[in-house]
Specification:
The chain is of the alpha+beta class. The chain contains five helices and five strands, in the order αββααβαββα. α1 (3-17) packs across α2.
Length: 104
């Protein structure tokens, strides 16, 4: 996934969820902090994303959605239950995960 694809996904997620605040998990996080990430970081065609309106996004951007068929990638929302254990401290979100939780 390229940064332009991340931006497409976040815009569409915002439209569907009627929200503009999302947490991006996993390998795609690098797209938000490094202008030119290593090519190995661009291989994944999956975006791990947590919004407040999870149910709407699963339907609208999940694996078998029209969005997925149209753009060739999907939004994975499996981490939403783990996210509920995270804490926001100022502008930082703290999450503690075990390897088995992240393996899905």
């Amino acid at each position: 996934m390229k940064k332009s694809q991340l931006e497409i996904a976040l815009r569409r997620a915002g439209e569907i969820a009627r929200d503009s605040h999302f947490i991006v998990f996993g390998s795609q996080c690098i797209l938000g902090v490094i202008a030119t990430p290593p090519k190995g970081c661009l291989i994944s065609q999956e975006l791990d994303l947590y919004p407040q309106a999870v149910g709407l996004l699963v339907k609208g951007m999940g694996l078998r959605s029209g969005f997925s068929k149209r753009h060739g990638f999907f939004v994975d929302l499996r981490l939403h239950q783990i996210w509920r254990r995270c804490q926001k401290v100022g502008r930082t979100v703290l999450c503690l995960f075990t390897p088995s939780e992240l393996a899905g």
